[in-house]
Amino acid sequence: MKSKHLSRNTYSRNPNKNLRQKIFITGGCGFVGANFVKYLLDNGSYDITVYDNVSAGSKKNLDIAIKNSRQKGRCQFIEGDILDKRTLSKKVRKHDAIVHLAAHTQVLESIKSPQQGFDINVAGTLHCLEAARENRIKKFIFASSNAVVGEQSIPINEEMIPEPLSPYGASKVCGEALCSAYYSSYGIKTTSLRFANVYGAYSYHKTSVITKFIKRIMNGQILTIYGTGKQTRDFIHADDISLAISLALRSNQGGEVFQIGTGTETSVNKLITLLTTLLTNKKTKIIRTAAKKGEIVRNCSSIKKAQKILRFTPMIDLENGLSDIVKYFSTIS
Asked: Reduced to 3 states, what is the DSSP secondary structure of residue 11?
């Protein structure tokens, strides 16, 4: 990943010189990032900077998210790379908090090419923390993953010793450790949020199971099930992820790790049933093949700590969330 020439766009429908917080978001053109930007613009007056090299995310998604928001604040876009330490530190100046979402997120690709994931997820996170330290930014939110825990008894919780099954999961463990160290050594109030399986708007380009299944069903293509289909995930809507990040920004906690999910276990087989019910006019053929190496069989989060400390409660159940995303995909397919 080479650093790109910086470009800047500023969006504002209602400029306000007395913005309450300046938020710096890495990876803001990504799926979660676009949803979070919209959430901030809908729910408060923020001065937002999105910093993204658009290698995985889409500038178009960010533009649409901003257009569809209530735009109580402002958002500017800077094309840049988290591996470009000097530029990153310069652009972080005068912000109140960093929300670090930029990452290499593909589990199977991390198995094939662990070095790339290490460079982006470990070195990149270190650069972001250094930028926070150099600029005396006291709040840092890190997007971690359930993948750090690996295959353990469910529901997984923050007390479990990490046992990642993939280099991707290991890279997120490193990120959490760096956040802990920067809290203890420099007083930066870091928070690591272990996201469960996120779905929602602006995910059309993703290869996650919900996105892949919806597109294949809509196009009349075969669904491939790896393993028995009894493998489970904790599916959480992007709006609930955005809520969790927002609560973490407002919290005075530092050095903490939180599981962020719904606490509900859903099998791949049940997911298919829900989607085929929603897409009633589509015929779907299913084939089964061997399970993928490095993937967790059962996964579900305990969110008791997040409920107690962050006051986090997910608001969108899976059936309603899937209905929303099917309608969203129908408008762009």
From this structure: strand
pLDDT at 9: 43
Give Dmax (Cα) for the chain: 58
Q: Are 195 and 144 in contact (CB under 8 A)?
A: yes
- Cβ partners under 8 Å of residue 142, min gap 6: 100, 125, 175, 176, 179, 190, 191, 192, 193
Q: What is the pLDDT of residues 137-153, one digit of tens each?
A: 999 999 999 999 998 99
Among 8-12, 128-132, 260-264, whose mean pLDDT is lowest? 8-12
Rounded Cα–Cα distance for residues 97 and 48 (Å): 10
Say if CB 224 and CB 159 are below 8 A apart: no
Please state, as a whole number, how many other Cβ atoms lie within 10 Å of the Cβ of residue 268: 19
Give residue 160's pLDDT band: very low, low, confident or very high (50, 70, 90).
very high
DSSP class of residue 281 equals T
Catalytic amino acids? 168
**What residues pair up with 288 in beta bridges, in sequence order?**
225
In order, the DSSP letters of 221-266 are PPEEEETTS--EE-EEEHHHHHHHHHHHHH----SEEEEES-S--E
| Residue found by looking up tokens 């969790």 in the block | 244
CB-facing half-sphere around the CA of 272: CA atoms within 13 A: 20
Q: How confident is the model at residue 333 (pLDDT cuts 50, 70, 90)?
A: low
Is the CB of residue 166 less than 8 Å from the CB of residue 110?
Answer: yes
- Asked whether 113 and 39 are in contact (CB, 8 A), the reply is no
